[in-house]
Amino acid sequence: MCQPFVLLSACLVLLGLLAGCEPFPRDPGESLQHVHERGTLRVGVLYGPPWVMGGAPGAAGGVEGRLVREFARRQEARLETQWGSEQERFDSLRHHELDLIIGGLTTESPWHSEVGFTAPYYTGKVAIAVRQGEPIPDDAEGLTVWIPHGSHLYDELRRHGAEVKRVPELSASTGAIAARQWEIKGLGYQASDIVLQERHHVMAIPRGENALLMELERFLAEFVESHDMDRLIWETSRQ
């Protein structure tokens, strides 16, 4: 006899609890809400081609420059870029004076304990590759591998037993090369399974800002899904 009353009481209690709950996801610092209220997305910019390059005066070019322009447009906000040193930009982010930072950041960033990061939106490998039609090596031992002047891959290749030669540009090589996957595809080479490095690219936001994080990650996932990222990075690097 009392079951309907008990059920009604339980429903009223549940409704009361739900009414008192804050919406999820939430931003303790209200970063996403402030973007909408200001009509401005404040982005800290660290130079790092091809991810971030110089654009128009004060603007950010490069792959991530394009990404944040389109993200700002989706939020119906004006993009405000602030260039500076890594220390300056991350200090500003920690104090909520910026909404996010771009600059070719990866999951290996030393700032992980102080700010938040998106999930990796692009994973790039550095591998040994050969021209189309040539035999693909399965071992670097004794293999002659070409790298461009200024490359940091020399020691890594030597640890794999490769003989290393340098050229001004990878396009001038006469054999196997060690390069990033977007360079390999752009040059028309075929990658081997000999992976030297792997980088997971992210963007930085204030720690704990979950609404902003989810909105940004959703945008990045949709962008990557609809674009050939290796081709985009290659074309951007040639500009």
Automatic annotation (TrEMBL):
The yes or no answer to whether the keyword Manganese is present is no
Where would I find the Solute-binding protein family 3/N-terminal domain in this sequence?
Answer: 40-238
Pfam families the record matches = SBP_bac_3
Listed A to Z, the keywords are: Signal
SMART domains to which the protein is assigned, alphabetical: PBPb (SM00062)
Coiled-coil intervals: none
Secretion signal span: 1-19
Q: Which domain of life is it from?
A: Bacteria
Q: Which family does it belong to?
A: Belongs to the bacterial solute-binding protein 3 family.
Name recorded for this polypeptide: Polar amino acid transport system substrate-binding protein
Source species, please? Halopseudomonas xinjiangensis
Instruction: Identify the taxonomic lineage of the organism of origin.
Output: Bacteria, Pseudomonadati, Pseudomonadota, Gammaproteobacteria, Pseudomonadales
